[in-house]
Design brief:
By secondary structure, this protein is of the alpha+beta class. The protein is built from six helices and eight strands. The model has no long low-confidence stretch (mean pLDDT 91).
Length: 203
C-alpha cells in the first residue's frame, strides 16, 4: 500500500463543478494521488494525497472553486494508515467481540470520524464504506475491547459534532458469532445471501 503523509476529500453536489474543481486541484500543487468520480445521489468526490503542503494547497483550491457546491470536506494532515487502507477497500477480520459503528449522511464526515476514532483508542478499523450502494451515506466499523470501542466511537463522533449532518452510532459489547460471520463476509445484503440459510434442511 502506498503511503501518503496527508489526504483530503471534498464532496460536491454538482458533478460539473466537481470535475472543474478536481482539475484545478491537480493543477494547483504537485499532489501524488488523485481519485475522482461520482457516487450515489449525484455527488462528485475528489480524493487527493501527498505531502502536507501540497495537499493543503490543493485542498484550498478545491474549496475555492467548489464554493457553495461543496457538501462536506475533510483534510487529514497526518492520516492514519488504517483509514487510508480502508478507503482503498482493504478490510480486516473481526478479532475482538466488541463492535462500534459510526454512520453519517456525508462521506467526508465518516472519514474524519474514523481517523479520530482510531487515533484516540486501541481499536482496528474493520471497514469503511463510502457512498455507492448507500444512497450517498457512509459508515465505518471498528472493533476491539468494549471500553476501547466505546472510547473510539465517542471520540469519532465528537470530532464531527459541529457538522450539520445526520449521524448515528452504536456500540455492541458482545457481537453474536453469526453477525461476526456476516460482517466478515460483506456488509452488503445481497453479498451475504447463501443457500444454507439457518433452519433449512435438505429433503
Amino acid at each position: 500500500m502506498i503511503r501518503y503523509h496527508a489526504i483530503a476529500l471534498i464532496e460536491y453536489k454538482s458533478i460539473a463543478i466537481g470535475v472543474e474543481a478536481a482539475d484545478a486541484m491537480v493543477k494547483k500543487a504537485p499532489i501524488a494521488m488523485l481519485k475522482a468520480g461520482t457516487v450515489h445521489r449525484g455527488k462528485y468526490l475528489v480524493l487527493i494525497g501527498g505531502t502536507v503542503a501540497a495537499v493543503e494547497e490543493s485542498y484550498r483550491e478545491g474549496l475555492r472553486v467548489g464554493g457553495v457546491k461543496v457538501v462536506d470536506k475533510v483534510l487529514l494532515p497526518d492520516v492514519h494508515e488504517q483509514v487510508l487502507e480502508s478507503i482503498f477497500g482493504f478490510r480486516q477480520k473481526i478479532e475482538a467481540e466488541s463492535l462500534g459503528v459510526i454512520e453519517t449522511s456525508t462521506i467526508s464526515a465518516t472519514v474524519a470520524a474514523a481517523d479520530a476514532a482510531i487515533k484516540g483508542a486501541a481499536v482496528n478499523i474493520i471497514q469503511i464504506r463510502l457512498g455507492d450502494g448507500l444512497g450517498g451515506r457512509a459508515f465505518s466499523i471498528v472493533s476491539g475491547k468494549v471500553e476501547d470501542v466505546e472510547t473510539a466511537v465517542e471520540i469519532g463522533t465528537g470530532a464531527i459534532a459541529d457538522r450539520d449532518i445526520e449521524m448515528h452510532k452504536t456500540v455492541i459489547p458482545k457481537l453474536h458469532f453469526n453477525m461476526i460471520q456476516e460482517i466478515d463476509t460483506d456488509s452488503r445484503f445481497h453479498a451475504t445471501m447463501r443457500l444454507d440459510l439457518p433452519g433449512e434442511e435438505e429433503s
